[in-house]
């Protein structure tokens, strides 16, 4: 008899705790736009126990290049990225506390699919421990030699290795650059999971 009372009480606790509860200002009830994505200010995703987020097996928070964007409506929010190259429709990735972790570009060959995933938060880490804010010297120490190249339009400086790109905080408007000009203290500012 005592077991059945305890069981009944356990069933009623969630109901009693939610009675009269009202969503706070940060709660989004229904915000999906016509693309099926959550617009700015949408729902956040869960974090791990240490407050960092892992890149693993070519994916981030389960988001993987080539997969349908519609699979990630709870994780992504629609937005606009403005750069020197123009304005781009992107899908931002928010952390559990609402902080922006990065964004997803739709695949240019099929905009219904995930293209490159750009990660800009220092809370994001690769399996090797690479993260935004790491110095160029430490990045090379962890990943081995990297050949960095510039971008003629934006002046970005980045290197690629094993399906990832690593952008550092250095401006180079020529593709070929002298690797010796990159100072050891130059910081990593973006990690990209390539499609």
Automatic annotation (TrEMBL):
Top-level division of the source organism's lineage: Bacteria
Keyword annotations of the record: Signal
Signal sequence, start to end: 1-21
Name this protein carries in UniProt: Uncharacterized protein
Lineage: Bacteria, Pseudomonadati, Bacteroidota, Saprospiria, Saprospirales
């Amino acid at each position: 008899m005592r077991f059945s009372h305890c069981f009944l009480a356990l069933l009623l606790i969630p109901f009693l705790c939610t009675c009269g509860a009202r969503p706070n200002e940060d709660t989004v009830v229904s915000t999906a736009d016509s693309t099926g994505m959550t617009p700015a200010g949408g729902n956040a995703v869960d974090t791990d126990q240490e407050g960092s987020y892992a890149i693993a097996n070519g994916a981030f928070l389960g988001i993987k290049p080539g997969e349908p964007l519609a699979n990630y409506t709870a994780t992504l929010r629609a937005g606009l990225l403005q750069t020197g190259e123009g304005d781009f429709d992107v899908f931002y990735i928010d952390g559990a506390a609402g902080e922006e972790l990065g964004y997803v570009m739709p695949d240019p060959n099929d905009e219904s699919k995930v293209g490159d995933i750009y990660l800009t938060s220092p809370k994001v880490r690769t399996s090797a421990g690479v993260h935004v804010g790491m110095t160029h010297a430490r990045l090379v120490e962890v990943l081995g030699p990297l050949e960095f190249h510039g971008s003629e339009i934006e002046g970005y400086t980045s290197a690629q290795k094993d399906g990832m790109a690593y952008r550092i905080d250095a401006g180079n408007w020529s593709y070929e650059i002298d690797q010796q000009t990159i100072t050891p203290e130059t910081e990593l500012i973006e990690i990209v999971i390539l499609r």
